[in-house]
Amino acid sequence: MKPFFSFIIFLFFSNYCTAHKTKVKIQNYGNVKTLYISEFNFGDKTVSAEELKMEVLGKLSKQIADKLGFKDTIMLERKTIMYPNKSNLFIIEQNDANYKLLKLGEGYEKTKGGSGVAIRLQSLKVAIEDVLKMVEYAIKNKKKLNKSLIPVNYFYNDDNQITVLANSDDFIRKITRKQSDLVNEIIKTEVELLNNGFSKTKISWKDGEFVFGFNDVPPNNGNYFKLETEKFTTKDFKYYIENTWNDFFIVFHDSDCFTYFDGREENTSSQKLDENISDFYPFRLNKDKISNKIVIIPFRSDVIYIYKINKKLLQKIE
Predict the structure, then answer these.
(1) Structural domain boundaries, residue 299
(2) Is the whole-model pTM more than 0.85?
(3) How would DSSP label each residue in the chain?
């Protein structure tokens, strides 16, 4: 590989390795509290779908609470770190609005307290509609929630475990498979997740789909041309990367397949990488286009990819 490209990779990885640490994100939406815990933490420009889902869930759960007249606290906890546990953990309980998943990894449960309900989910992925059904169920059945909890083993390291009260998979399936008119109504609400200003990138979620687009609403004062752009929608994805100037997205659907999107239909293209890469670590992206090209760099690999936007051509350089 040419020395110039080796230098680029060195700069990317120097920043990359120091930035990687567990992400803990706490938000409040009225009486709805959310806690999101993930190892996927690679800066503001590389964001997983699971993190965005947590914001959608917080905002839409607030709407469900308002429609049902529920004033107590709703705690939504989400943890995407599975190790050392291999199985999903679902807990729907009453009168415990404290943070619990944050403490389970240390080998103990936080003392119970506080009125309200809690929905705690430890899994790699969730479906927004399913979780909203759990929220609705918890509100309507608050007084009997704890009767459905059973003891399960929870490993907080390779050799040690504690007993945790949780719900069975069958119990959760019964909730999520049942139709809900309220949830069907709520998910039609558009939830804005990112808006970088006029002519810049934005993301929203509505009716089961993420919508990637551009802000085409000009400021009130000043003369601006009407911005004509397309949208890119997807039901789910792994993570997206945004460049420094907020004028295009790279949306990774899994570890080796991405879609380039800059609002122009003629440029939108999906590409398949032939790299044998980690399923966890994301690719890195140069901060801006270089002569209508972008540089994509995989983690722990002595190669780079050059993507030519107008030709929709992906080139691997070793």
Answers:
(1) 190-218+226-317
(2) yes
(3) --HHHHHHHHHHHHHHHHH---EEEEEEETTEEEEEEES----TTEEEHHHHHHHHHHHHHHHHHHHTT--S-EEEEEE---TT--S-EEEEEES--S--HHHHTTTSPPPP--SSEEEEEESS---HHHHHHHHHHHHHTGGGGGGG-EEEEEESSSS-EEEEEE--HHHHHHHHTS--HHHHHHTTS-EEEEE-STTSEEEEEETTEEEEEE-----SSS--PPP----EEES--SEEEE-TTS--EEEESSSSEEEEESS-TTT-EEEE------SSSPPEE-SS-SSSEEEEE-TT-S-EEEEETTTTEEEEE-
